[in-house]
Amino acid sequence: MNYPGGLKKDCIKTRTYSNRGMNLEWDLNDSNEYYLINNIAVIYKKPTPITINKVDYKARNDAVIKEAHFKTPSTTDYNGIYKGKYIDFEAKETKSLTSFPLNNIHKHQIEHLRRINAHGGIGFIVIRFTSLDETYLLFINDLLEFLDNNTKSSIPISYFKEKGHIIKGGISPRLDYLKIIDKEVFI
Q1: What are the chain's domains?
Q2: Global confidence as pTM
């Protein structure tokens, strides 16, 4: 925008290294807030379980965590309920143009999603290829099929194009992944 006297500094978003990998999370959190406000679904980002070891109390209302460690390995990023079905999923970003490295998702997370699926829940991963500006939803069954039939260390983008579902970006919700759930689960 052209403001009189130049750009307003508070309108310029700067990207720092601390923001890497957060755009997908922001989009999903925004979408989940839309779903909640509009009484469509109740889906939340799960907090990472940590144990605090050292805190610096500069002032009563200004405590700073100086040292902490992960209590237990976390399961997945998001869970909730939609149309009476439990939903659980992991969200990841990659800069790769060609594939998603499997070392970005942990075995215990895959096992967790496998259990969700076995109990009738809806489990999946959401992968954003940041360099391509494409976001895919891949159901756990398709992820397991790839893992069971391949020894590759990454999932090629072609597999996401074939078996996954592209999540189109929008305004509200930002990423309407429930549209895919409606189409594939609640037919």
Answers
A1: 20-184 (3.40.1350.10)
A2: 0.78
